[in-house]
Task: structure prediction
Amino acid sequence: MNSTEVINLLQESPLFKKVKSSLLAALLMKTTRRKVAAEEILMTPGQPNDRIYIVLSGRLRAQINLYDSKPLALFGVGECVGEMSMFDDNHISSYIITATDCDLLSIHHADAWAVLNESLQASHNMLTILSNRIRSSNLILAESMEYMQGYEALNFLNTVTGMYNYHWLSENIARMIHRHTMSHHPCAFILLKIENFGQFDARFGSLGSDQAQRAIAQALLRCLRPNDMVAHIGEDQFAIFLPQTEPVNIDRVTGRLLEEIGSTDIVTPSWDALPHINLSVGISQMQPDDTLDSLIAKAYSVMPGSQHDAT
Result:
């Protein structure tokens, strides 16, 4: 990958998306490339870190300990690791391990700060990444606390994705709608349905279908604002609550979600690539007397009969 290709990749990456190419070209001159073999430990909890790594090829995974069978997160091409330690005393909070052979771009924290100070877009991107990291951490913490305290019977979390489920959203949707409609802020509801989930499950089994659900969940978390809410209300359905969202902006939001899901790879833990998924989308504007069931019904009533390919 030459310099021009790296700059193009950076401009599509979460951290440097839409940052001026001249800034990235100057940054690139200060970076180093690092090739790392599969199953190497890139970062260790508690150790100091002064680098951000951008994945140019391959995949990284984050996990609490070395023997976890289920990673906290997976990072693919264009994604970054190490940014949290810029704000956390330069110490690492989890293991970062190469899941495959990787080509990484190494950026010193001081050079990253220089770009953030120079570019409002880069600063906005960093805030989005941090808010998504916090959101994911909160979901993991909520699930852990529920199990530790013996509240599994409440069944408020989807066990595959760790997101809130239908039961939780049904219990809380009225309060959420009331809070925002009383302040005269428009709210939107988006229902995403996996059209080919049955065939996907039959062909690849529960392992493949679980990975598809997790891939969608992670893509949604990357796109949504901190005050948006997403719930996994069925194996093939995700419900999204968008406060303070004007009707004219919903198509743009939906397009961004579909684009992000379509660009997300679905892989098994053994790194076998799975096909992309087909999604149907239903949108409804919230009213003060809506319930979760009424919102779902309205979303289904406007959902096109044809499939929407997320790719």
In short: Residues 306-311 have pLDDT under 50 and may be disordered. The helical segments are 3-12, 21-28, 109-118, 120-148, 166-181, 197-223, 247-262, 292-301.
